[in-house]
Amino acid sequence: MTLFLLRRFATFLLTLAVASVVVFAVLDVLPGNVAQVMLGESATPQAVAALEKKLGLDRPALERYASWVQGLVTLQPGNSHAYDTPITELVAERLVVTVPLALLAMALTVVLALAAGLYAASHHNRAGDLGVMAVSQLGIAIPSFWFGILLVMLFAVKLPWFPSGGFPGWTEDEGGGLWDGLQALVLPAVALAVVQAAILARFVRSAVLEVLREDFVRTARAKGLSRRAVLWGHVLRNAMVPVVTVMGLQFAGLVTGTVVIENVFSLPGLGRLIFQAISNRDIPLVQAMVMLLAATVIVINFVVDVLYALIDPRLKIAHR
Which residue, 36, 110, 162, 189, is the most exposed by fewest CB within 10 angstroms? Predict the structure, then answer.
C-alpha cells in the first residue's frame, strides 16, 4: 500500500505542476497585452508601459513563471490590482464563508444521498425505489441557481425563516454570530446539495445493488443476520468504494460551484471574489484564484486516492 500511496503522491505533484503551467500560460503567456486588458482600450501607452513594469511583464516568461510559483508556494502571490490589497488577505477573508458553505452542502449531500440510495436499493423495483428515482431525476434536471431563487422566494420572502442574502459574520464584533452565520448559509447550502444529492443517490443505489448480489451477502444472511445488519455492516462499506470517488468530485464541484450560488445570495466568498476579479479585469487575482480552485480539485482527488487505500481491502492485498 505504501508503493500505491507514493505513486499517487507523485501523480499529485505532477498534476499540480502541469496545472500551474496551464494557468500561467493561459492568463500570462498567450497572445495579448495583459496590461492593456486590465487598463482598457482607452489607456495611454505610457500607462500601459508603467503597469507592465509594475507587474513584471517586461521580464522573460520563464522568469515570471518561476517568480509566480514562488509566490504561490510562500503564500505571497502579490497584490490585487483592483483592490490594491495582498491577494492572500482577500482570499483568507473569503474562505471563512466558502469553506463552511461547501462543508455544509457536502454534509447535506451525503446524508440525503445515503438515505435515499439505501432506501431505494432496499426497496428495489418497488414503489419506494421508483419514487426515489423519479425525485432524483427531477433534482438532476434543476439548476442550482434556479432552485436557490425558489428557496429565497419561499423561505425568505413568503415565509421569512431565513435571510434572503448577505452574510452577517461569525462573531458579534462583525454584527452577527454563529447562529446568524449558519442561518445565512442554510439556503445556499440546500440549493447546492439538492442537485448533488440527486446524482449521488443514484450512484449509491447502483453500488448497493451490485454488492447485494455478491456471494458474501448471501452467506451473511444464511448465518442468520438480519437484512438491516447485513446492509449497514457489510454492504455499505464495500459499496462506498466507487461512491467515494463521486463524493470527492462532488465536493470539488461544490467549491467551484459557489461562483454562481454566492452571487445569487450575495455571499462574500471565493465565488463572488473571482466573479468580481473577472469583471474588474484583475488578472493577478484571477490567476491566483483559478490556481487555487484547480489545486483544490487536485488535492481532493489525492485525498480520494488515499481513502481508497483505507476503504478497499483489495488494494492492501495487491500492494503487499
Answer: 36
Q: What is the distance between the alpha carbons of residues 266 and 263, in angstroms, rounded to a whole number?
A: 5
Confidence of residue 154 (pLDDT cuts 50, 70, 90): confident
Report all structural domains of the chain as residue ranges with CATH numbers, in order of start. Answer: 32-74 (no CATH), 87-318 (1.10.3720.10)
Residue 79, helix vs strand vs coil = strand
287 contact partners, CB below 8 Å, separation of at least 6: 23, 24, 27, 28, 68, 77
**Residue 213, SS3 per DSSP:** coil
pLDDT, tens digit (0-9, with 9 covering 90-100), for 181-239: 888 888 899 988 888 888 888 888 888 888 777 777 777 777 776 667 777 666 777 77
pLDDT of residue 30: 57
Which three three-digit cell numbers place residue 36?
Answer: 492593456
What is the C-alpha to C-alpha distance for residues 193 and 136, in angstroms, rounded to an integer?
Answer: 12
Assess contact for 101 and 188: CB atoms under 8 A.
Answer: yes
User: Which pairs from 190-193 meet CB under 8 Å and 24+ separation?
Assistant: 190/105, 190/108, 190/151, 191/144, 191/145, 191/147, 191/148, 191/151, 191/261, 191/264, 192/101, 192/102, 192/105, 192/109, 192/144, 192/254, 192/257, 192/258, 192/261, 193/105, 193/106, 193/108, 193/109, 193/112
- Whole-number pLDDT of residue 60: 81
3-state secondary structure of 86: strand
pLDDT band at 316 (very low <50, low <70, confident <90, very high): low
